[in-house]
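Render Prepilin-type N-terminal cleavage/methylation domain-containing protein in 3D.
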Amino acid sequence: MRKKGFTLIEVICALAILSVFAATTMTIIKPMIKISKEQEAQTVVYLTEDILCYGKLYSKYNETYLNGVIDKKKIYIYASGFSRTYDLPKGYEYYTSNSKKTFKINSKGEIDISTTIYLKFEGENVAGISITVGSETLNVK
């Protein structure tokens, strides 16, 4: 008579092999997820810097004034006939070191407030972008 099934030893060996494989995979996946989140946060910082720098350059080369708003979920720069917006991905938030949420960029490309724009991901600080009045550079912490 032929048996249809596996013996207890065969099942235990198969489960042991699968558990070793799963444990190995989990130790590899956790660092990969962490690296992926760090890269996404860095991309968000770059895009935030990009919109600020774009506004500074636009106002400088077009000799115009721009207005800007730092909202919890987005940052936008606008003037008549011009606007740029960057909406944060899910889970991210902006907040500033002071209570100022609006700013102006003059025709020289200078931002009129000194503040640090902090980026939070799920309640944890990820980065900060410091803006200094009259400075050409933005400093990322």
